[in-house]
Amino acid sequence: MTTPARTELGQRLCDGLDALPSSRRFTAEQLEVIYALAYAHVAQGQYAQALPVFAFLSQYGPTRRHYLSGLALCLQMTGRHDEAININALCATLFPDSVQSTLRIAECQLAAGRGDEAKATLDMLVRYAEAGGAGDVGGRARALRDLVSQESTA
Q: What is the secondary structure of 79-102 as a DSSP string?
């Protein structure tokens, strides 16, 4: 399966975010030094401490996948599931080749008690995996979908 291309909307969004003045305030090297701090917090399971750092990074590097993914992860791990879904949806729009964001959306939907939405998201991921995409995410999506299906019939 070919790598999905960014949609026209996704490209316009990316271009608009790159054009923001905040995108040019810090150099890539300066942002990466700050990222190392956020990454260290996440590696130690300190998601609440990493959250404001990733929020800062996402403001000044709004099209860098690892900043947005870090922000979404911290939001998810601190129980802010709706916000995590929004950031993961942004990641999926900007980086359609990264299905991990869609899987994280399903995880947040499950954590927020929205099983039907999660099942629909997981069904979509499983179909994508069966068509040759999703890589290692496909197996996890399949397992979560099966778990959700079992719980809904119990």
A: T-HHHHHHHHHHHHHH-TT-THHH
